[in-house]
UniProtKB/TrEMBL annotation:
Keyword Cytoplasm assigned: no
Catalysed reactions, as listed in the record: alpha-D-glucose 1-phosphate + UTP + H(+) = UDP-alpha-D-glucose + diphosphate
Keywords: Nucleotidyltransferase, Transferase
Protein name (record): UTP--glucose-1-phosphate uridylyltransferase
Domain Nucleotidyl transferase as annotated: residue spans: 12-268
UniProt GO molecular function: UTP:glucose-1-phosphate uridylyltransferase activity
GO biological process, one term: UDP-alpha-D-glucose metabolic process
Taxonomic lineage from the root: Bacteria, Pseudomonadati, Pseudomonadota, Betaproteobacteria, Burkholderiales
Annotated TM spans: none
Membership in a protein family: Belongs to the UDPGP type 2 family.
Organism this protein belongs to: Paraburkholderia monticola
EC number(s) given by UniProt: 2.7.7.9
């Protein structure tokens, strides 16, 4: 049975949808309450048994390295002030058995190209790809569910969810037939299709567990109309030689790459956050009770 020890976090995109917030700071560092998106993603991977975190970074992304690095100055000040639990919070972001490796993608040439940058570090092992702007909540965590499916079937696994409305999928859409209640044998995958061309209503959520064969297929992918090499066509090409499964994960997806998804995550997480849930809930109810409509527009 193959185990999954490595995860790739592509964080080298140019983040156009959150400009100007992302002009000098990566979208993966946007916080939902008090934790950046990338930390939620890393914690999910660690819960799934991943011990090697490979970040594909680019211009302006150094702050992600700093976030997962030791921070002696901050810790020293917190301990000197007797704030032990905060010092532990800052210290223990990645456990000692987990290593972080950073690879630079010189140009943002697409998600597929970013994954290809990890090839030498992955070698011949299966690996996970985690897109941090999809914040996934599940119990067990979604990547753990996927590793379980991967180990059971020894096949690449893509996380999917059924979407209801047009444009609900920001990545690819799969076609295929159900094998099991939540497992679909994939027969096609299309990158962001027009609604009439979508092969099904199952859209890809930003989690993959892939066989290393995907690298050979990535090498054959031609750049799209924007000059980017995408991951979706490589997976489509892989279908010719091996089985790929889609898995309807148990949990909830927040598409934090969009303003709406980011706001939904913030509100839901605030309603459960131990410091603020009561007061925020009360404020929200009062606000909703009194709100017939927005009083102004923020630009
Ligand atoms: P997106 O399609 O979300 O693009 O990339 P983006 O640049 O991050 O954001 P928008 O759409 O312009 O707002 C999907 C994932 O692939 C990574 C991104 O960081 C994101 O996690 N990516 C994309 C790379 O690492 N390199 C690239 O060249 C492109």
């Amino acid at each position: 049975m193959l185990a999954v020890h490595k995860a790739v976090f592509p964080v080298a995109g140019i983040d156009t949808r959150f400009l100007p917030a992302t002009k000098a700071s990566p979208k993966e560092m946007l916080p939902v309450i008090d934790k950046p998106l990338i930390q939620y993603a890393v914690e999910e991977a660690i819960d799934a048994g991943i011990t090697e975190l490979i970040f594909i970074t680019g211009r302006g992304k150094r702050v992600i390295e700093d976030h997962f690095d030791e921070s002696y100055e901050v810790e020293r000040v917190l301990r000197a002030r007797g704030l032990q639990s905060l010092a532990e919070l800052v210290h223990g972001i990645t456990p000692s058995n987990v290593s972080c490796i950073y690879v630079r993608q010189a140009e943002p040439l697409g998600l597929g190209h970013a994954v290809l940058c990890a090839q030498k570090l992955i070698g011949e092992e299966p690996f996970a790809v985690v897109l941090a702007d999809d914040l996934l909540e599940g119990q067990p965590p979604v990547l753990e569910q996927m590793v379980h499916i991967f180990s059971h079937y020894d096949s690449s696994v893509i996380a999917v969810e059924e979407f209801e409305s047009e444009g609900a999928c920001s990545h690819g859409v799969i076609g295929g037939r159900h094998w099991d209640e939540r497992v679909i044998s994939v027969s096609s995958i299309v990158e962001k299709p027009a609604p009439q061309d979508a092969p099904s209503a199952f859209g890809v959520a930003g989690r993959y567990v892939l066989m290393p064969a995907v690298f050979e297929h990535l090498r054959g992918v031609r750049p799209d109309a924007h000059g980017e090499i995408q991951l979706t066509p490589a997976i489509h090409s892989m279908l010719e030689t091996e089985q790929v499964l889609a898995y309807e994960f148990i949990g909830k997806r927040y598409d934090c790459g969009t303003k709406l998804g980011y706001l939904q995550a913030t509100v839901d997480f605030a309603l459960r956050h131990n410091e603020v849930h009561d007061t925020f809930d009360a404020w929200l109810r009062q606000r909703m009770g009194g709100a017939a409509g927005a009083s102004g527009t923020a630009h």
